[in-house]
Amino acid sequence: MDYTLNCNGRLLDLHTPQVMxxxxxxxxxxxxDSRKQSEQEIAERTQQILLEGGTMIDVGGCSTRPGATCAxxxxxxxxxRFALGVVRKExxxxxxxxxxxxxxxxxxxxxxxxxDIINDVSEGADGKMFRMVARLxxxxxxxxxxxxxxxxxxxxxxxxxxxxxxxxxxxILDPGFGFGKTMEQNYEVMNHLERLDMIHxxxxxxxxxxxxxxxxxxxxxxxxxxxxxxxxTVALQKGAAILRVHDxxxxxxxxxxxxxxxxxxx
Length: 266
What we know:
single chain, 266 residues, two-stranded antiparallel ribbon, 8-stranded parallel sheet, 9 helices
């Protein structure tokens, strides 16, 4: 299905899947190479994402990996203000997403830095985030911690209805690989990913270097690029519209190859 997102007045066409590069300004994200702390590191990572073909940058100021110590709200805001200031100086073209589960952090990012998308891992929690993003008028990535596609579909349907009741327009579904699921459940969700098309919304897939790969194959996040590319290929074939990744060039090449096979079918 073809989708567009209204990102602060700019229409982002998802007819061709897009690649979202990860930029973490945390000291403890699970993949060490994704951690960027200094102004130079943030600037270099921003340029790397763009030069390698990414069109979206997802900035995170609070690690959500299992066992991580959660930064305070003020600390998360401080990190994001620093990072977003640098990112905005480096690019005016890329779509900027902020990875947060806190409504006031989302408000700050949109109102102070013109962030285009809010990426939330909390499933809206108590509804405060739902109301906030609807008020802000930006696209919203809704993640699921549900362990099966059937439960995911039921929860997504209810949550989308709630978001619509607040006036939210653009919604992106994230099946939440690595959140609330065993390794086996992660693969089962991937196996049935195309069923999310029933909700008629774009799907984001974030499997980059996650434990579902290296726990199956052995090693660590450092050795998980090949497995990431395999799963990104499967996700694209099953309808993913956005890939959220650490390794942008590999994902962009994956999109180019998969979409080339689509053109040969026509």
